[in-house]
């Protein structure tokens, strides 16, 4: 039987470690996930983990990159299914907030990762998120939905920060379902301030 090319073996080993780490992090949390245990479950050693990711923190970063890509694709589909370009933009943010209800996402992405990796704005996935938001805002401006002189980067960072903070709140509260509804309503109210031709607020009598 022919041996697999080295690059395929490396990719396969990395994939096994990421899958094992993700399972452990999702089930018992980062702090309680035993490297010896989850590497042994897939027939590998702690040494393999050190070789490919440096340490358990490096593995968590790889898990976050994988999960972020999956979440982004789900949000892209959700946005594409919306009736209008604007509603698609809003639904991406609300969809992200709602993902905080999912056990794996809640524990890994919104609880453990900020504690271990620090500020989400500094994660390796952050720039991709900001660039995607900037592109969406640019498209909305071109379509006349928001002002053409909008500072796309500043707004993208503010919107990203708002949805991330909301998701972390939901992940830590004892009443997540109620928090999702409140956060989603507030997020919509917040971003509607960007609309170029939004109705003027009514004055009090």
Automatic annotation (TrEMBL):
Q: Which UniProt keywords apply?
A: DNA-binding
Annotated DNA-binding residue span(s): 34-53
Q: Please verify whether the record's keywords include Ligase.
A: no
- Name by which UniProt lists this protein: TetR/AcrR family transcriptional regulator
PROSITE patterns the record matches: HTH_TETR_2
> What residues form the membrane-spanning segments?
none
Residues in HTH tetR-type domain copies: 11-71
Q: Report the superkingdom from the record.
A: Bacteria
UniProt cross-references to Pfam families, sorted A to Z: TetR_C_41, TetR_N
């Amino acid at each position: 039987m022919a041996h697999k090319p080295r690059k395929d073996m490396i990719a396969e080993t990395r994939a096994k470690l990421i899958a094992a780490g993700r399972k452990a992090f999702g089930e018992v949390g980062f702090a309680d996930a035993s490297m010896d245990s989850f590497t042994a479950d897939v027939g590998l050693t702690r040494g393999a983990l050190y070789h490919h990711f440096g340490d358990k923190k490096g593995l968590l970063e790889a898990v976050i990159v994988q999960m972020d890509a999956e979440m982004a694709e789900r949000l892209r589909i959700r946005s594409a299914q919306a009736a209008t370009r604007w509603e698609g933009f809003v639904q991406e943010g609300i969809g992200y907030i709602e993902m905080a209800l999912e056990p794996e996402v809640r524990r890994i992405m919104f609880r453990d990762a900020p504690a271990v990796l620090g500020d989400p704005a500094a994660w390796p996935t952050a720039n991709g998120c900001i660039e995607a938001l900037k592109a969406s805002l640019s498209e909305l401006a071109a379509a006349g939905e928001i002002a053409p002189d909008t500072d796309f980067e500043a707004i993208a960072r503010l919107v990203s920060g708002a949805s991330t903070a909301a998701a972390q709140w939901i992940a830590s509260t004892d009443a997540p379902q109620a928090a999702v509804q409140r956060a989603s309503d507030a997020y919509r109210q917040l971003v509607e301030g960007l609309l170029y031709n939004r109705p003027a607020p009514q004055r009090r009598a």
